[in-house]
Protein 1
Amino acid sequence: MYDGTKFSGFERQPNQRTVEGVLTQKVNVMAKKPDPPIIIYGSGRTDAGVHAIAQVAHFDFPFDLPTQAVYKGLNSMLPLDMEVTKVERVSQQFHARYDVSGKKYIYRMYLGEFQNPFKRNYTGHWKFPINLEKVKRALVDLEGEHDFTSFVASGSTARSNIRTIYSATAQLNSTKDELQLEFYGNGFLYNMVRIIVGVVAEIGSGMRPEGDIQRLYKVKDRNQARRTMPASGLYLKQVFYEGDDPAHPTKLVKRWR
């Protein structure tokens, strides 16, 4: 897990502090700097400012250490905004990215006239009145297989914009000043969740008509989806692999590469 606030995303970049870069450096120190160096493979990239509750990564370690030793050793070296929550051995055929069968993301949105300074790094902000029932009805239109071309930012390298969302839900916290949306699907495109949240919030606030998501599927025009919500509210909640994915518990599912 990691607090994405001070990271320039997951993917390694020159002269930037990234999750992959920090983890790679620490794993190689633990392995006494082997040549060639150990490479980290993550389940997917998160952007600058995006958080993870349960990112998954794999690497080939050159020594036969107990998993508990790797777990404790890495956490003793990692910075305070990162923590390894579990270490396990996997087969030689396992790939953290290519074997993914599903992911869950959550988006936390602070509802208030002004952003709470103590939540600014961990929530998006929405200052307009919003109707929860309208939001829930809009989320129903997201479920199923759709062409999400209107919901993908430029710069995407995906070969297809068709994805399946198994469920999309929304709930308010107990003080009703934060809206949390959860999305579970077989894969997500570049900025897809943050764009979807912007559209759904506009529907909930009456800035768009109900049912507008169906229109956006048809027009396939990113500009008509308009805003992208801040990265600070987005969390990678869970990554699923064949056998532990509740939508596909036993059968092989389509991989998105």
Protein 2
Amino acid sequence: MQHASHIDSRGSQDIKYEHGDHLTGTLSPNSVESNVLAVHPDEGFDESEIKSIRRKIDWRLVPPLAALYAMSLIDRTNISLAAQAGMSRQLRLTIEDRYAHAVLAFFPPYIAFELLSNIGLRKVGARFWLPSAGVLWGISMLGMGFVNNHQGLIALRALVGLFEAALFPGATFLLGCWYLRRELAFRLTAFYQVGVFASGIAAILAYGFSLVRTGTIAGWRWIFIGEALITIALAVPGYFLIVDFPSSHRCTFLNEREKEIVATRLQRDRADAVPDSLTWGKLGKYVIDLKLWGYALCFGCTTLASYALSYFAPRIIASLGIATAVRDIYALVIPPYVAALPWGLLMAKISDKTGSRLPIIMFNACLALLGCGLFAFLPATKGAGRYVGLFICAAAANSNVPLISAASQSNIRRQSKRLYTSAIVVGFGGLGGIVSSLVFPERDAPLYRFGMIFVMGAQALVFVISGMMAIYFMAANRAAARGTRIIEDQPGYRYQV
């Protein structure tokens, strides 16, 4: 095997990995204390070789994770489509805000188990952990097709939340450990937006299932049954397709030379190619890192908008006066999510290319506020204009979700901190889901004006927090350039603003 010592003449040392991880050969620069700006991540490597490795990683990571996340979004939000297809009437969900309670039940276990799930993911490995989660929430979703009361629906929604807690933070953590900071936003956006796109066109799938009539099983039940079976069918191949962390002995799709290149580029970019355990001491330091709470608050406010659209879009569209049949309502759910895909990819591409994170997040927050405002304040007779507002809000909010996640992963070091950050940020996304279920009560239907105004306030808060963080990061970078500050305990490290 060819060693990496030819890459950098300043010397190297062997890297020791924990929890069964290993990487034969050497890394350069290898010291966690090395100056990350001293050498460009790609220096000494052939550009075509780097592109070939990156292409391998892209195809092995993004498509299987995106497929699982697509079903994750579909399974957590298909309750709104089932409600339109007759579930609300049969289970009497319009009484005492039972529908909102069923929506809300998903989130407490989803939030509570994210950090524990990430710890399990690091120890057990992504290749087993994430597909197993998909199989388990698929089985829980299957049970929702056979419930006969709202209590059973709420209990199974909670189980789906428990098992889905593994996927989004786990995938964010995994992707963050594979890519350079300047490569991450586009990959996270592709992973996320494919899921959003699929959840949008899933309205067609749900409508098709709702038309199925077999014995005493109503059409709305087939939405849960059919989509659960698809989830399980997509999760099983994940045991063979999803790859583990780059330092793991279970990661076999790259040869040793390619693994060395991946590790060396990561080390030069942010000096954290070496896995480290999450200890109580580190956890205490991470908890008091205010920038992580800033990202978490922005993420929660953004997911408030995206969840509100997911759970209440069919009812909102029904109020516009431009569609009355269930079929037409389902059809009108799709276009805003289709439009969100190219917009999100464009914003992510610009963000990675320029290294600009927070200004783009602020721009999207303004667009989301505008979109919500069009829906909330245009007269009820202006159904087309209010529908355009949904387009704008869906595109902007769903663009910001992966951008905020990528920004939070781009301004930290150490893999243990990535593990914690992905859990805490996505956990606040769950809080956004809880709030969305509370600020859209049944009594406000069909306009949901209070809920939309609340979402607008949340987007304004994203703008303010992001602006304050941008000012802080620029000041910290200037201090680091003067030599009066060391960022993230790493000489030469700079925040991406």
Protein 3
Amino acid sequence: MEQVLGKEWTISPAGGSTGEAYYAQLEEKRLFLKRNSSPFLAVLSAEGIVPKLVWTKRLENGDVITAQHWLEGRELKPLEMKFDRVAALLSKIHHSTELLHLFMRIEKKPLEPEMILNKLRQSQIEQNQVETNIDVHKAIKYLTEQLPVVQNQRKVVCHCDVNHNNWLLADDNQLYLIDWDNAMIADPAMDIGMLLHKYIPESNWNSWLEKYGVQMDVSLMNRIYWYVIAQSVTFIQWHQKRKEFSQAVKWEETLQSIFVKMHQS
């Protein structure tokens, strides 16, 4: 990063799973730098979804460095995910035609539910756990049976990682959704489902969805459960592959609790 900014800047890692993010400071100037960030960061910045983009530079090796305003703030707490502004911002993202058109221009193919299911099946075969993991076997059977219910739905730009630590509340009280590396064109139920399941009591789902701008119906409920189950299996397989068995067990417990909720509703 020094060759981009100069040696007079103080540069330090900003954490994150990729190790490609940095903080940079020179006297009163402060920037958040990232290598090979989302190609649609400019649109996200223009719509006020992420902190303002300052500049973009392409290096000789082809890497692209982006600089955004470094904002003082904090991530949302889990209990704050019920805020009206969270539902409003997610709805704004899902209804952004500019984002959707940009995704389509860079040839981002929509993520269809059968693509998700096929990947889960293949992962199970590779891990040789089709018979040994009863919960995952049950989940994949459910996803297969319910596949027709979730097909042919409207697709939007989904963030695909709406955990509370990706919501930045700046000191000026502006809310942002950051870290767009996993974003895809998909059914909005993918984002909505995991957010509701993780942070909102089911008795409050209807009121949260009203703030988002939709009404709960049977179709949406089925899609929410389908994607939450699919994402849970994805996490189980991911942790098992990394031999993080305690984390895999937690997601297995999550999967069990989802099936209990479904039987109760």
